[in-house]
Specification:
By secondary structure, the protein is mainly beta. About 10% of the residues lie in helices and about 45% in strands. It has two helices and six strands; from the N terminus they run βαβαββββ. It has helices at about 30-35, 50-55; strands at about 15-20, 35-45, 55-60, 60-70, 70-80, 90-100. Strand 4 and strand 5 form a beta hairpin. It starts with 13 loop residues before the first strand and ends with a strand. The relative contact order is 0.23.
């Protein structure tokens, strides 16, 4: 699985940043990396954001996701009602769009 901080998809969207609320770094062991990842779904934002970008595996402690899309960034934040212990994907809701600085 590609690293979500650098992966490009075939629709031209790019993960620009994933913020973590806790400062703990993930270990290099593949077992810990898998354990520290969750299924996430990005809800809201532009209607032309590709479906391939809306479902992701993200760090368990991630609170924000910033997606590069059409010359700007789409910002998503973890929904407060989402649980990382549930088998359902964690919901990240769209909050704002910013433009790329030139």
């Amino acid at each position: 699985m590609p690293n979500p901080t650098t992966a490009d998809d075939d629709e031209g969207c790019r993960f620009a940043n994933i913020s973590r609320s806790m400062g703990a770094a993930m270990t290099s062991s593949s077992e810990n990396v898998v354990e520290n990842m969750i299924e996430a779904v990005l809800v809201g934002g532009p209607s032309d954001l590709p479906a391939t970008v809306r479902t992701q595996r993200l760090p368990r402690d991630g609170e924000k996701v910033k997606i590069h899309h059409r010359g700007g960034y789409e910002h998503f934040e973890r929904d407060g009602g989402s649980s990382t212990s549930s088998p359902s994907p964690v919901v990240f809701r769209w909050t704002t769009r910013t433009r790329v600085a030139e």
